[in-house]
Amino acid sequence: MTTTAQTAQTVTAVETTVSYHFIITIQSGNGGMATTDGTVSITPGAHSRMQAYTTLREQALAQYGMPSAVVVFFALEPNRL
User: Fold this and answer.
1) Torsion-angle region of 7 (φ positive above 0: left; ψ -120 to 50: alpha; else: beta)
2) SS percent in the chain: helix, strand, coil, step 5
3) Over the stretch 34-79, which tens digit does the pLDDT of each residue have?
4) Do 24 and 36 form a contact (C-beta atoms < 8 A)?
5) Looking at CB atoms within 10 Å, which of 5, 9, 26, 53 has the fewest?
């Protein structure tokens, strides 16, 4: 049987976000390259690594005005040391 306290702990654990540091380098078809980095807050279990990658790739493309590009490098790690 799940108690109210256990339910509250479970909900709190699920809603907690974790800060991740990312670095992404993209290259356009004409050879232009751009690198961006930063932090993003992700709720564990609510998002996949693929979702984070796709979102960050789309943001990088928009930031540098590239309609398409190849990802040369991508890293996503917890920001906490």
Assistant:
1) alpha
2) 35, 40, 30
3) 999 999 999 888 889 999 999 999 999 999 999 999 999 999 999 9
4) yes
5) 5
